Amino acid sequence: MSHTIHVDISRAANGRQQIRSRNAVAEAGRAADGSDADDAFRAGELLLGALGACTAGTVWAYARQHGITALEEVRVHVAGDEETAPSRIARIRVEVQVSGALSEVERDRLQRAAHACKIHNTLRHLPEISVGVSLAEAPVSA
User: Fold this and answer.
1) Would you give the end-to-end CA distance of the chain in angstroms?
2) Which of 5, 74, 84, 124 is the one with CA 20 to 30 A from 105?
3) pTM of the model
4) In 3D, which of 75, 68, 62, 73 has the Cα closest to residue 105?
5) What is the number of other CB atoms lying within 10 angstroms of the CB of residue 120?
6) What domains, with CATH codes, occur in the chain?
7) Which residues cross the membrane (predicted)?
């Protein structure tokens, strides 16, 4: 089954990029003057955050669907090494910590589930990406 996910990005009044999908809103980018800002995500952090959130959610969903009721907590730390030429995140490390009275078999099953999230699959099996640039219509003056 195929489903299309939509996300819209526009410039917010503070100069950052505003990201909207459904009723959710987030901001990414630097301060309006171009300096680093600690109160907004950078695009690379959003990518790593998407991978971490997807991984944690997939582990929780797998546990729920397969009756692994001893799972108490899932914590994920994601780190990415930046490179240049071209600018990118060249290496990503995902560390998943689970807690609860889990058997070795259950931990192994959760480990396999952690590799099955949509974002992990997208990064492993590179998507086709197309970028189009068009001229926006000028606003109508009253």
Assistant:
1) 46
2) 124
3) 0.87
4) 68
5) 17
6) 1-41 (no CATH), 42-126 (3.30.300.20)
7) none
